[in-house]
């Protein structure tokens, strides 16, 4: 049973009675001074500040998510551009390789043709030199034979006629 329901509690000499009266007076002063309104206003202000902080946090989170989505989009675009550049570079490298092969083949063909022309010129020059040497040798041999015959027979009319015809044919 509560102490304030007993008769002894309401006795003026009871210190608990005076404590209860003091407590009631304190509560009355607190209520009259408007402390509950001040506390409520403080709590309301604190609640509204917390709510505004939560709203700001939600706004910042949404903004961060938007930025993250934008960054992911930009990353995907950059990766696509990089892949496209890589493909273009590979295609360009293949094209340059093919062009280089063609140029090398053309250069090789030109050099081969030049070498063949030089070989043909060398062969022609060698043939001319051999023919010239053979002609010189034949002329020398003919001269020696003729000189030997002339020395043996001072004058042969057939030989003189042949030499005369030879001089006319050579000039």
UniProtKB/TrEMBL annotation:
Residue ranges of coiled coil: 47-106
Assigned keywords, A-Z: ATP synthesis, Cell membrane, CF(0), Coiled coil, Hydrogen ion transport, Ion transport, Membrane, Transmembrane, Transmembrane helix, Transport
Principal subcellular localization: membrane
Pfam families tied to this protein: ATP-synt_B
Topology in membrane: Single-pass membrane protein
Keyword Ion transport attached: yes
Compartments reported by the entry: Cell membrane; Endomembrane system
TM stretches of this protein: 17-39
Task of the protein: F(1)F(0) ATP synthase produces ATP from ADP in the presence of a proton or sodium gradient. F-type ATPases consist of two structural domains, F(1) containing the extramembraneous catalytic core and F(0) containing the membrane proton channel, linked together by a central stalk and a peripheral stalk. During catalysis, ATP synthesis in the catalytic domain of F(1) is coupled via a rotary mechanism of the central stalk subunits to proton translocation.
UniProt family annotation: Belongs to the ATPase B chain family.
Complexes and interactors: F-type ATPases have 2 components, F(1) - the catalytic core - and F(0) - the membrane proton channel. F(1) has five subunits: alpha(3), beta(3), gamma(1), delta(1), epsilon(1). F(0) has three main subunits: a(1), b(2) and c(10-14). The alpha and beta chains form an alternating ring which encloses part of the gamma chain. F(1) is attached to F(0) by a central stalk formed by the gamma and epsilon chains, while a peripheral stalk is formed by the delta and b chains.
HAMAP family on file: ATP_synth_b_bprime (MF_01398)
Protein name per UniProt: ATP synthase subunit b
Organism expressing this protein natively: Brevundimonas terrae
């Amino acid at each position: 049973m509560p102490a304030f329901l007993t008769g002894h509690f309401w006795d003026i000499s009871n210190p608990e009675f005076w404590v209860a009266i003091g407590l009631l007076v304190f509560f009355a002063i607190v209520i009259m001074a408007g402390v509950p309104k001040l506390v409520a206003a403080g709590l309301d202000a604190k609640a509204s500040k917390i709510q505004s902080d939560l709203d700001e946090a939600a706004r910042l989170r949404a903004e961060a998510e938007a930025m993250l989505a934008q960054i992911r989009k930009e990353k995907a675009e950059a990766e696509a551009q990089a892949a496209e550049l890589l493909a273009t570079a590979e295609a360009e490298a293949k094209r340059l390789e093919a062009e280089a092969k063609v140029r090398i083949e053309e250069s090789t063909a030109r050099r081969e043709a030049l070498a063949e022309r030089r070989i043909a010129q060398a062969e022609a020059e060698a043939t001319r030199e051999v023919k010239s040497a053979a002609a010189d040798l034949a002329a020398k041999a003919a001269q020696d034979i003729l000189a030997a015959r002339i020395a043996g027979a001072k004058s042969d009319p057939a030989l003189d006629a042949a030499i005369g015809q030879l001089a006319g044919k050579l000039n």
